[in-house]
Amino acid sequence: MKRIIGLLILIMLISVVGVYAETTLDFSSSSSEEIRGLDEAYPNLHVTEIRQDPYPATPGSFVDLYLTVDSIGGEILDPRFEFVMEYPFTLEPSFDALTDLPVLSSKDKLTLHYRIAVDELAVQGDYEIEVRAFVEGNNYYPYFFDMRISNVVTDFDMALQEVDDSGVSLAMSNIGGNTAYSITVRLEESEGFQLIGPSSYIIGNLNMGDYTIVNVLVNPTNITGLNDEKLLSVFVDYTDTQGHRRTLEKQIPIIMTYQVKKGFESLQQSVFFGQDGKTPKGGTGYLVLCVVLLIILASTVVYYRKKLKKK
Predict the structure, then answer these.
(1) Of 86, 116, 257, 285, which is most buried, counting CB atoms within 10 Å of its CB?
(2) What are the strands of the beta sheet with 167-174, ordered from one edge?
(3) Domains within the chain, CATH numbers bracketed
(4) pTM of the full predicted structure?
(5) Is the dihedral of CA 112, 87, 25, 17 positive or negative?
(6) Does residue 2 surpass a pLDDT of 50?
(7) Could you give the CA distance from residue 189 to residue 167 in angstroms, rounded to a whole number?
């Protein structure tokens, strides 16, 4: 029995035509693998090319892989091929990870086709996949290659800007590498804050590096003293560049400085009592309307009383 040292089988990289074109992948056999029970004359299998379409892969999509296999050295009975992969990849249900063939003649070429689903929450990076070409029982030649996933997600930075009688102003920046579409900021009742306004705020789109101000209506439930820190939980829903809806949770620290506490007090007065802190919400216009209605009612009563007296 001789140790067969795995060498680099083929390095062929075709320039990508467009952003998501088909490409030929680099791959190699591991130099540490040992093929047992084989001699030099025994027929074997060589993977000579691996193609990926489209390239790079994107989260939430399907990718087609094509493996070209050559038979070298003679006829091979019962050859089989096994596709080994982990998250974020899964085989499309109509495809099988294990391919069995009855026979492969000498110098035959075989193309294996696999369709792979990429998890929609996958992050950017290169992920290793293994293909095993079995030639006799459990003896196999391993081949390794990387599948690249492009970045379609983004991230946000959110911080308190100010608090005044109009609301809590949050500065929101797109600090990721892609545009975020159809952004919605959501708030929920929590231990530290009470909602005193809408729970959702539609923002729209934010390009990479852009920022906006989100004005929300919340009220701290209890403040024990100056410089207390509270965490405001904010949920950011957005659509990524491949059309998938994603959600991020952001914890925004709010330190109760004198100015921030004063701002919250002004906000409470504005929401619950009106701008002057004394007039019930609805303001002067509401009072004027009430007075006018009372005058009309009183005038009507006086008019009918006079009419009755004349009769």
Answers:
(1) 116
(2) 156-164, 167-174, 211-216
(3) 21-149 (2.60.40.1510), 156-272 (2.60.40)
(4) 0.61
(5) positive
(6) no
(7) 16
User: Which of 23-32, 100-109, 154-163 is the most confident on average?
Assistant: 154-163
Report whether 136 contacts 37 (CB < 8 A).
yes
The residue among 120, 179, 126 whose CA lies nearest residue 155 is 179
- In this structure, what token pair is assigned to residue 24? 């030929």
Mean pLDDT for the chain overall: 80
Give the pLDDT band of residue 43 (cuts 50, 70, 90): low
Q: Strand pairing partners for 63? A: 116
Residue tagged 């306004």 (tokens): 197
DSSP the chain: ---------B---PPPSSTTEEEEPPEE--TT----S--TTS-EEEEEEEEEEEESB-TTSEEEEEEEEEEESS-EES-EEEEE--TTEEE-TTS-SEEE-SEE-TT-EEEEEEEEEEPTTPPSEEEEEEEEEEEETTEEEEEEEEEEE------EEEEEEEEETTEEEEEEEE-SSS-EEEEEEE----SSEEE-S-SEEEEEEE-TT-EEEEEE-EEES---STT-EEEEEEEEEEE-TTS-EEEEEEEEEEE--HHHHHHHHHHHHHHHT-TTSSSPTTHHHHHHHHHHHHHHHHHHHHHHHHHHHH-
Instruction: Tell me the one-letter amino acid at 135.
Output: V
CA distance 45 to 300: 104
| Residue 201: both structure tokens together | 């705020």
- Separation between Cα atoms, residue 203 and residue 211, nearest integer Å: 11
Q: What is the pLDDT of residue 257?
A: 92
Give 77-103 pLDDT, tens digit per residue: 888 899 898 999 999 999 998 888 888
The pLDDT confidence band at residue 234, using thresholds 50, 70 and 90, is very high
pLDDT score of 4: 36
Average pLDDT of the segment spanning 127-134: 88
Q: What is the token pair recorded at 129?
A: 């996949």
- The tokens 């920046």 sit on which residue? 173
